[in-house]
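Consider the tokenized backbone below.
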């Protein structure tokens, strides 16, 4: 089965549309790893599309904060403003939808999906030191995660070697396919659709092919100026839209 992995869309409709266009015909089942909303200008439109496209969706911290499950106390001021903006804009139906989203982990055929980490949906796995405990005692050979907005991940080989799965660099061919070795364990992040933070502004996603044991990392350009113009118009804090064109 070929699974489209979408994470951290963050109400960015232009980025989501660009990813879906590139992914069209290349996958059978779409899965969302959380943070559908927050930061961006189009929460209702993005929820509508994710609901339509994805067979499974788990919630992220911004989904929780935007529907009032969480009080966003650990958010920075700009993220809190965006969560409040999102809550005001959401239709009653979409607020309900977010409130009923399941938390991860979710299990598929041979892989697990989480927002932050297998033990805590709000935990960041940025470094190999943070990844190691989850690779040493895995609940699945492959764990797909989001939350950090960094495409790539970590592997623990059958011989016991810890390695990072390199981020896709702007000059790399797209997609970059990584074969999953037998006996190795993986933590893999498809990257963020709507607010990448790995210094590449292009929208990120991945396709996991469980029949052929490989993951394909994608990046795609989108109309970032249009997203930024909408955010400016909506009165969202400037740092939130300036960051989109630098990918951080
Ligand atoms: Zn996020």
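A designed sequence for it:
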């Amino acid at each position: 089965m070929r699974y489209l992995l979408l994470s951290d869309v963050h109400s960015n409709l232009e980025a989501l549309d660009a990813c879906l266009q590139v992914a069209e015909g290349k996958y059978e089942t779409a899965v969302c790893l959380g943070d559908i909303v927050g930061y961006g200008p189009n929460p209702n439109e993005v929820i509508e599309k994710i609901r339509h496209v994805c067979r499974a969706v788990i919630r992220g911290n911004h989904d929780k904060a935007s529907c009032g499950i969480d009080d966003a106390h650990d958010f920075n001021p700009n993220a809190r403003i965006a969560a409040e903006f999102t809550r005001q804009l959401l239709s009653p139906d979409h607020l309900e939808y977010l409130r009923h989203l399941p938390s991860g982990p979710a299990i598929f055929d041979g892989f697990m999906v989480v927002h932050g980490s297998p033990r805590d949906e709000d935990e960041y796995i940025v470094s190999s030191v943070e990844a190691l405990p989850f690779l040493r005692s895995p609940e699945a050979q492959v764990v797909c995660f989001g939350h950090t907005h960094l495409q790539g991940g970590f592997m623990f080989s059958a011989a016991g070697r810890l390695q990072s799965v390199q981020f896709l660099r702007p000059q790399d061919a797209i997609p970059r396919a990584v074969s999953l070795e037998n006996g190795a364990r993986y933590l893999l992040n498809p990257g963020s659709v709507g607010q990448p933070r790995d210094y590449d502004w292009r929208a990120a996603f991945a396709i996991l092919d469980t029949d052929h044991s490989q993951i394909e990392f994608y990046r795609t350009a989108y109309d970032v100026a249009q997203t930024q113009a909408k955010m400016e118009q909506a009165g969202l804090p400037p740092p939130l839209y300036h960051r989109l064109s630098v990918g951080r």
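DSSP finds eight helices and twelve strands in the chain.
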